[in-house]
Amino acid sequence: MALLCGIDYGSKLAGTTVAAFLWTETGAIQWFYAAKKQDADAMLQVCLTDLRPELVMLDAPLSLPQVYQNPQTPQPDYFYRAGDKVLRAMSPMFLGGLTARAMQMAAFCRKLSIPIFETYPARQADRLSLDRALYKKAQAHIPAIQTQITTHYTILRQCPPLPSWHAVDALLALVGALRYAENTHTCYGDPTEGVIYI
């Protein structure tokens, strides 16, 4: 039985980090929500250590632009990676501390031999043709968006009603994990720099 994990990664103490763990054999999903003023990274480390998922999809940059690895890069871009440009994602440099924490979390996962990959829920939402007039708008629209997601992935239908857009993005990160496990994912970016999996 495979255990997959999708994480919407927020500020360390803001209470916006959400992790969803899916048991693919049963469709059961276990949710973890960081509380406000709780160390989200410590919470995730406990969850990952205890549950040991077969793979993790994290909504945060896990690498820096190529120029920081190779200063001799021709036509260097100090702000965006190739995948960021294609997906119109935020710059890892703009996200600063979040990027550093995500890279540290990836190192933690590697020590546990847990594969961890970068994903981008907003692009997953586009791929699923979620209603952009509803997605990440009023709280009242969350049930409709959740239904749109589970229409595409019946394995996610045991998911309880989601309480926030952060939980919706964790569910979309979990969709990325499912797609990777099924080998139906799409990769964006340069493998020598950093790839975003959708």
Characterize the structure shown.
The chain is of the alpha/beta class. It has one domain (3-193): Ribonuclease H-like superfamily/Ribonuclease H (Nucleotidyltransferase, domain 5, 2-Layer Sandwich), CATH 3.30.420. 36% of the residues lie in helices and 17% in strands. The protein is built from 7 helices and 7 strands; from the N terminus they run βββαβαααβαααββ. The chain has helices at 40-51, 82-87, 92-95, 97-111, 121-127, 142-152, 165-181, and strands at 3-8, 18-23, 29-33, 55-59, 116-118, 187-190, 194-197. The strands form 2 sheets. Strands 3-2-1-4-5 form a 5-stranded mixed sheet. α6 (142-152) runs parallel beside α7 (165-181). The protein is globular, with a radius of gyration of 16 Å. It starts with a strand and ends with a strand. The relative contact order is 0.21. The mean pLDDT is 96.
Q: Please give the share of residues in helix.
A: 25-40%
Number of helices: 7
> Radius of gyration over alpha carbons?
16 Å
Beta-strand portion reads: 15-25%
Q: So, the CATH homologous superfamily?
A: Ribonuclease H-like superfamily/Ribonuclease H
User: Can you give the mean pLDDT?
Assistant: 96
Count the domains.
1
CATH topology-level name: Nucleotidyltransferase, domain 5
End-to-end distance, in Å?
23 Å
Unreliable segments of 5+ consecutive residues: none
Number of DSSP-assigned strands: 7
User: What is the class in the CATH system?
Assistant: Alpha Beta
Largest sheet: 5 strands, mixed
Q: Helices and strands: which structural class?
A: alpha/beta
CATH architecture: 2-Layer Sandwich
